[in-house]
Amino acid sequence: MPFQMLLCVDGSPYSEAASRLALELLARVDAGGLTVLHVVNVVAPSGNLLKDLPGHLGFEPAIVSAEVGEQHDALGRSMLNALKLDAQQRGLEITTVLEHGAVAERIAHWAGRFDVVLMGIRGETEARYPGQGGGSVHAVLSNVAATVLLVPVGGTTLKSLAVAYDGSPASRHALAIVSPLVDALSLPVHAIYVAQDQEQAESSQVLDEVAAQLPSHVVLTREIIVSPSVHQGLADAATASSCSALALGFRGNHPIKDFVYGSASEYLVSKTNLIVLIAH
Predict the structure, then answer these.
(1) What is the rounded distance in angstroms from the CA atom of residue 79 to the CA atom of residue 122?
(2) What are phi and psi of 204, to 5 degrees?
(3) Which segments within the chain are labelled E, that is strand?
């Protein structure tokens, strides 16, 4: 079934990697279309002091002169036009949108119309000022209902996929989301279950469920690891498996694990250099 993709771009190296991956997916997967969104997070003064006050205090969108605002608009239009030309040269058609406002809020507004949202795992602020970016990504994760695909600088293609699986509805949903990608791109899959102790690991058969949910031709390997930290366990196992991407549900299978797996999503975004697919 075709799915609609939203690509969010900001001109950073992370965004450029996400753009290359989005065009690859558009060309190779049964995608219903690709819309590219760039949010300009500055605006010219409206003349209303109260309306402009948040922007003057440092909140998005920032208040700048009309001349500076036009410069930001021009850069955004140039970025979108270049990406559209790149797509056309590959025989692909995309839709481009230039918006004004707070970046995370505008992305969340648009995301509700799409099945998958692609964006850099970090953004333009992080590229210019290392250690100070990432706020928009975490805000998007918390506020969109769509599946989010977060791309690091080197993540321009999908070669193999690790799937975090704990038997929960969220992890089953993650498998359902990645199944078309796995099928279309012939991706090998490495299923990972993080057990809290050795007894749980020895008695667990949860990964037996994975094969039944994937196309029969998929090369599937399985790994049960014991780790007191779901966060670190998933990161270590996915990296050691040499997979290029890791997919997981945003929530686990009971209230305590809900918190653990939700925070694991944020940890993986912050601490790994993998493409991270988070299925909401």
Answers:
(1) 18
(2) -80, 135
(3) 3-8, 31-40, 42-43, 62-63, 95-100, 116-120, 147-151, 161-164, 189-195, 220-226, 245-249, 275-279
pLDDT tens-digit series, residues 154-194: 878 888 999 988 888 888 888 888 888 888 888 999 999 98
- Enter the CATH code of domain 3-151: 3.40.50.620
Which residues, 6+ apart, have CB-to-CB distance to 160 below 8 Å? 187, 188, 189, 190, 241, 242, 243, 244, 245
Residues of the chain with CATH 3.40.50.620: 3-151, 161-279
Give me the mean pLDDT over the 82-90 stretch: 96
Amino acid at 75: L
Taking every pair of Cα atoms in the chain, the longest distance, rounded to a whole number of angstroms, is 67
Distance (Å) of CA 276 to CA 77, 137, 148, 161, 221: 28, 12, 8, 10, 19
d(CA 91, CA 160): 26
Residue 203: pLDDT band by 50, 70, 90 thresholds?
A: low
**CATH, domain 161-279, list 3.40.50.300, 3.40.50.11750, 3.40.50.620, 3.40.50.2000:** 3.40.50.620
Is the model more confident about 28 or about 266? Answer: 28
